Amino acid sequence: MKPHVIFTPRAIVLAALVLTVSLGSGCAAFFGLSSHQTHRSSSVVAYLYPGKENPLPPTTIPVLRLPLRVGIAFVPSGDGHAAGNYTYGAGLSEMQKTALMRRVADEFKGREYIQSIELIPSSYLRPAGGFTNLDQVRRLLNVDVVVLVAYDQVQFTNENFLSLSYWTIVGAYIFQGNKNDTQTMMEAAVYDIASQHLLFRAPGTSQIQASSAAKYVADNLRTDSTKSFDAATSDLIANLKVQLEEFRDRMKRSPGEVQIEHKAGYTGSGDFGGLFVGAIAILATFAWFRRKS
Amino acid sequence: MRPLPWATALAACAAFSLYFVSGAEAACIFDRQAIAAGAWWRLFTGSWVHFTPSHLGWNLAVLIPAGIWAERLQPWRARALYLVGPFAIGGALYAIEPQLLRYGGLSGLAAAFVTFLALAQLRTDTEDRWFWRSVLALVALKIVAEVVVASPLLAHFSDPSIRSVPVAHLAGVLAGAIVLYVKRRGARR
Description:
The complex is a heterodimer of chains A (about 290) and B (about 190).
Chain A lengths: L8 H23 L3 E7 L2 H5 L14 E4 L1 E7 L6 E3 L2 E3 L5 H15 L5 E6 L10 H12 L3 E15 L11 H4 L3 E15 L4 E16 L4 H37 L5 E4 L3 E4 L3 H20 L1
Parallel strand pairs in A: 1-5, 2-10, 3-6, 3-7
Antiparallel strand pairs in A: 1-7, 4-5, 7-8, 8-9
Helix pairs in contact in A: 3-6
Chain B lengths: L5 H15 L3 H5 L1 E2 H5 L5 H4 L7 H21 L1 H22 L3 E5 L2 H16 L6 H21 L12 E3 L1 H16 L8
Antiparallel strand pairs in B: 1-2
Helix pairs in contact in B: 1-5, 5-6, 5-7, 6-7, 6-9, 7-8, 7-9, 8-9
């Protein structure tokens, strides 16, 4: 007896649906997307106070010997690894870090109270090195104050309705069915190494949103990452300038907070000031009254 | 008719101009390396450079009245002091303060004119001898405090990276005294 196969319209529609979904998710799997996150980060606190939940505050007053020798360094970040749809990125390359540090350095060079700005290679800082590591860097490179730069960048990519075209294969090259979001936060913390005192800090943020076709998502995310770091650095530089001026104002208002000394090779000035003029004015007033009487 | 204090007016205008003209500070400030390379005019022009509006204002508040009075009292000696004083101050800073890289401010010249005026008044039969002696004592106190305490007495720099330089005031005082007491050629006693 011949087997009886039933190809009802309902069965055909069901089969077509299953095939479509399989092909679509197969395409998504082929390009490695449905939604995906990448996270790159480093932390000043984790570098300076490894394993310490409640670090003790510094007890000595920072002594700043002007003009300052400043070092800039990126704190070490974690290595890249993946966990499901979430990847911990390997962080910035050394070339990228150097370019960003150079941008910050160029903005602050030439100031009277800054003698030099040294770009410290990442290899000089070891993960969780703490102030011991910073002290080694201080002796090696002869810097007084260090600007520690940390970052936190998260990249998301999600599919929109155009991603349905991916099942055609060609659509993955043409239609921008992926929405990419890159959020970056950078932080610069300025420390006096000898006293382990945080002098001031400043943040910098940026966000870039873009769309891309599935085939180009990885490239576009890489480009967006670089652009986002550049934009966050610009924001960081602007905020650093503001915080530096506020720190200088704070030093004038509370001179006991920081001790200032001067090294050889300084800028000098002569100033009589309002008190001298006031004293002369008082004497002159006495002389005038005396003549009157 | 009393002589017009045109030299003081010129000095004040020069100080104002140097402060507000872009690039003038860089070209005129006392800069040790530039002087060593041959820019000797900076020994003179450095005195006319100021770093902040209050720096300019307070120095002129002392120099203008002292300069006008001195110019009316002894016009040619006062005008000679405007020429000699800055060179004396700049030269002293260059020779005695080797660690000083940059310098600016009229206070050295102002100290010169205050000293010149006070000594000139004390040479006359003024009734206010106590006043002029007090002025000289005030200038001396300021210089001593700057040397001993290493802090600008009766003045305050808003920028902690700038130091007070007592040698400038001392050189100004000496220049003021020397210009007052030096005898003119052929002068009768």
